[in-house]
From TrEMBL:
One example GO MF annotation: oxidoreductase activity
InterPro entries referenced in this protein's UniProt entry, alphabetically: NAD(P)-bd_dom_sf, Sc_DH/Rdtase_CS, SDR_fam
Keywords: Oxidoreductase
Pfam families: adh_short (PF00106)
Protein name: NAD(P)-dependent dehydrogenase, short-chain alcohol dehydrogenase family
Domain of life: Bacteria
Organism per entry: Parapedobacter luteus
Record has S-adenosyl-L-methionine as a keyword: no
């Protein structure tokens, strides 16, 4: 296992909240960083601040809107073209349960927005980056999930009939957990470890504040948990697990339904155009 100063780590949603804090923690360790965001001004200012504060100049930023699968494809193509090593992908970008005035929102591809951004985008990005991950020994993928998990209704996956922001968010996060389990089996011989993690409950982030919730955890708690799953030698041989903080835990019961996982993967492949 390479030292962190010799690794290349990609973080999506890296210009705010948990993603930005993860980037800062890794920058201090000398890790080469590939940062993603959807606001180029915030992206440039994030990189500039990290370089100035930590002295780590090996930081690059890529812009893409995760609500547009075409931009996700373009992002992956740029990464495959520009990089020869990718040790860790942290799929962190996401939208919380609040927003939209309680109205159901749609992605640019016509999918329910939280399902598209929180789940379909990392589903597609991870798939497209597999060639780069496979050629990097000991690579890992981390799905930043949540303790809030809602079962998927395959008859109403886009929540046309029964939408709430909480349900949309919860099912997108359970879908991430299920995806990690599915990919861990499909890629068991490829040497890639794929896990999901609930970083901490109600961290002090913009996402939590927008939901009018009172923060209960610090961002540093979430950073510690995600970095444990992403970089700790203790997790080097673990794949397909769900972590609550640094502890392996049980996810929602539906995550252990093999037929549900297969159905989700098949539907997701069609929606993402794979």
């Amino acid at each position: 296992m390479r030292a962190l100063s010799e690794q290349v780590v990609m973080i999506t949603g890296a210009t705010d909240g948990l993603g930005k804090a993860l980037a800062k923690a890794l920058a201090w360790k000398g890790t080469a960083l590939i940062l993603h965001g959807r606001n180029p001004d915030k992206g440039r200012s994030t990189v500039d601040a990290l370089v100035q504060e930590t002295g780590n100049k090996n930081i690059i930023y890529y812009n893409a809107d995760m609500a547009n699968l075409g931009e996700v494809r373009a992002l992956a193509a740029k990464l495959l073209s520009a990089h020869q090593q990718l040790d860790v992908v942290i799929n962190n970008a996401g939208i919380g349960p609040a927003g939209g005035g309680g109205r159901r929102q749609m992605s640019q591809d016509g999918y329910e927005l939280r399902f598209a951004v929180n789940y379909l985008a990392p589903f597609l990005l991870t798939d497209l980056l597999l060639p780069l991950l496979q050629q990097t020994e000991g690579s890992r993928v981390v799905m930043v999930a949540s303790g809030l998990q809602e079962p998927l209704d395959f008859e109403d996956l886009m929540l046309d009939a029964a939408y709430t922001g909480r349900r949309a968010y919860g099912q997108s996060k359970l879908a991430l957990v299920m995806l990690a389990m599915t990919l861990s089996h499909r890629l068991r011989d490829a040497g890639i470890r794929i896990n999901s993690v609930h970083p901490a409950s109600l961290m002090d982030t913009t996402l939590v504040r927008e939901s009018n919730s009172r923060p209960r955890s610090s961002i540093s708690e979430g950073v510690d948990a995600v970095l444990f799953v992403a970089t700790s030698p203790e997790v080097a041989d673990i794949s397909g697990a769900f972590f609550d903080g640094k502890r392996q835990a049980r996810a929602h019961d539906q995550a252990y339904d093999e037929n549900a996982r297969k159905m989700l993967f098949t539907i997701s492949s069609k929606l993402a155009g794979l």
